[in-house]
From TrEMBL:
<dbReference type="Pfam" id="PF07992">
    <property type="entry name" value="Pyr_redox_2"/>
</dbReference>
<keyword id="KW-0560">Oxidoreductase</keyword>
<dbReference type="InterPro" id="IPR023753">
    <property type="entry name" value="FAD/NAD-binding_dom"/>
</dbReference>
<keyword id="KW-0274">FAD</keyword>
<dbReference type="Pfam" id="PF02852">
    <property type="entry name" value="Pyr_redox_dim"/>
</dbReference>
<dbReference type="GO" id="GO:0016491">
    <property type="term" value="F:oxidoreductase activity"/>
</dbReference>
<comment type="similarity">
    <text>Belongs to the class-I pyridine nucleotide-disulfide oxidoreductase family.</text>
</comment>
<dbReference type="InterPro" id="IPR004099">
    <property type="entry name" value="Pyr_nucl-diS_OxRdtase_dimer"/>
</dbReference>
<protein>
    <submittedName>
        <fullName>Dihydrolipoyl dehydrogenase family protein</fullName>
        <ecNumber>1.-.-.-</ecNumber>
    </submittedName>
</protein>
<dbReference type="InterPro" id="IPR036188">
    <property type="entry name" value="FAD/NAD-bd_sf"/>
</dbReference>
<dbReference type="InterPro" id="IPR001100">
    <property type="entry name" value="Pyr_nuc-diS_OxRdtase"/>
</dbReference>
<keyword id="KW-0285">Flavoprotein</keyword>
<dbReference type="InterPro" id="IPR050151">
    <property type="entry name" value="Class-I_Pyr_Nuc-Dis_Oxidored"/>
</dbReference>
<dbReference type="InterPro" id="IPR016156">
    <property type="entry name" value="FAD/NAD-linked_Rdtase_dimer_sf"/>
</dbReference>
<keyword id="KW-0520">NAD</keyword>
<feature type="domain" description="FAD/NAD(P)-binding">
    <location>
        <begin position="8"/>
        <end position="326"/>
    </location>
</feature>
<feature type="domain" description="Pyridine nucleotide-disulphide oxidoreductase dimerisation">
    <location>
        <begin position="364"/>
        <end position="470"/>
    </location>
</feature>
Amino acid sequence: MNETTRTYDVIVIGGGPVGENVAERVRAAGLSTVVVERELLGGECSFWACDPSKALLRPVVARADASRVPGLDPAVAGPLDVERVLAHRDRMSSYWKDEDQAEWLNSVSVDLIRGHGRLTGPKQVAVQTPEGDTVVLTARHAVAVSTGTRATLPPIPGLDTARPWTSREATTADKVPGRLAVVGGGVVAVEMATAWQGLGSQVTMLVLDNGLLERMEPFAGELVTDTLREAGVDIRFNTTVTSLDREGGQDGEVRITLSDGGQLAADEILLATGRAPQTRDVGLESVGLTPGDWLAVDDTFQVTGVDGGWLYAVGDVNHRALMTHQGKYQARIAGTVIGARAKGEPIHDAPWGAHVATADHAAVPQVVFTTPEIASVGLTSREAEQSGRRIEVVDYDLARVAGAHQYGEDYRGRARMLIDTDRNTVVGVTFAGPGVGELVHSATIAVAGEVPLDRLWHAVPAFPTLGEVWLRLLETYRG
């Protein structure tokens, strides 16, 4: 076993989209940079989350949309070609190989060390390589932790022998389970229930709460619930799993015992019950932090409670907004900040400035790729009420918009806009309905830009598109 030492201006632990973007930004600022990655460069999003899940979902959602269009419905009524869908998923995931990502990192002059990186003290990182060697790294300016999150599993008796799916297995499975039980009611649960039901699985959802997508506007979860049930998904609310047992070895069925004493059999069970930070084994104790904790940061993504201002936490690991696009937004800011501080340049810390994150508080967009799609940004009505602001809620039936008619018959959808009546700006928007994912950026601009309603009236939507809902919401507000 060999040990080598190297010194860089910046060390990035974690080579997912967030870590890659931090590295690219600080390298563009002229700082020597290295990325340490223990799995695949490109991270969870590229190989086990965003890319493979959307590849599974797209044909399911497209078929559902097409089935409403007169003249198309008989042509799309049959089953999907599962083999081709899974092959496309594999291509979208680059067959779980990261050579292209490594080539890109090299093209921006960032070094890569494969292995498990751990902090060993201020500005110090030790990397255990797959070959058993140790590389000791020292940072002149900063270390950025971008290790993301992992699935959390509840303490259910029989969990070890049941070998449940997490989100990773759900997005990478090579065959359709005949019966799939999904525990959870959040985004992963509803998206994977949508995907695998559409591919031919009999899906049962076991939901602890009394609704789906409980963190969003209630009508969003209600519409998804209706559509899943119409597709044949068995959804059981207020249900707890008390024990699991997989019978007959690896390929045996899973016996699920429920809190009401009932039992359920499934070929696979997906536990979509939350995420935890990947910080258990990155050496936090060496700098006075608690292993396994989320890393608290300020608006420049410096970790609080660590002397010297050299440690940054970017992306899901700081628990501000657990989405890839927000993590990349954070990375652009953090990389710019690190570069500025290394050069002794002033930090512009006013709201919406180049060196602070403001959108993570005010304008976080999200799309849930179910049938129907759900798209949101900013506050929900419940959050707005809790904030103490004076808010007016404006609702509109999306089926009444001319653009919805182009999606065929029986369009079901809803739009909600939240107006801060003191400031005369939009602070939250939620859309539910086919095709609404493409509306979320216009909503994000309205919220992030704090566009006054008097000016928003002059943003004329094209006819006939779903975007015309903006005009209808404004008309409804004015009465």
